[in-house]
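Table S2 (continued). Query chain:
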Amino acid sequence: MAAASGGSGAGSCFVLGASGATGRALLRELQARRLFARVTVIGRRRLSLAEESGTAVEQVVVDFERLSEHAAAFRGHDVGFCCLGTTRSKAGTDGFVRVDRDYVAQAAELAWAGGCKHFVLQSSQGANEHSRFLYLRVKGEVEKLVRAVGFDRCTILRPAVLLCTRQEFRPMEWITQRVLGAVAWLFPTAYSVPVETVARAMVASVLQPGGGKVEVLENKAIHQLGKAQPQLGT
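Corresponding output:
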């Protein structure tokens, strides 16, 4: 991938979902590793980003309900990273489907039309378009839609339960994270993964040779690929 080969700081990428836990970790990783000359955050509002040494970040505000009107935001990027998502408790069933499936699929189409060659999608362990569970079914459906867009390369990551500190408090997720955080000592790659590891794996997937037009990374592979990487120049 010419955009980031060898960490030369050439090319451009965009990030969707930078306000979430994985997206924030991804943005920090991109800034620290300086793989791209230009990093663009595409979102529904401007974010207060901590000053980091390394790559400068541009922000473009879009209306996801009128995403086709913002095609220019997706134009001219070599790589697209997508961590976009919400929950049913926060957005309702219709809102969850619209964000996690429809927005993502439309963004992928705009990115491809704008010249993006490699699309990196954060999905979920157990994603299956035929699942009885809405969350897993929607994740499976969006995977299918993104695969069909026609990118030169599409990387899909399916992390298990994400270990992170969220800005909003989710009681059940907090309990689950505490339990799985302890289990991780015994089974470090089976049931959970830190968001920082997912972010490193997303970036590393761009640097490593492609495993085919579409590659799916399950939780264990995310752990392996997302091991701490040395900083460029060290």
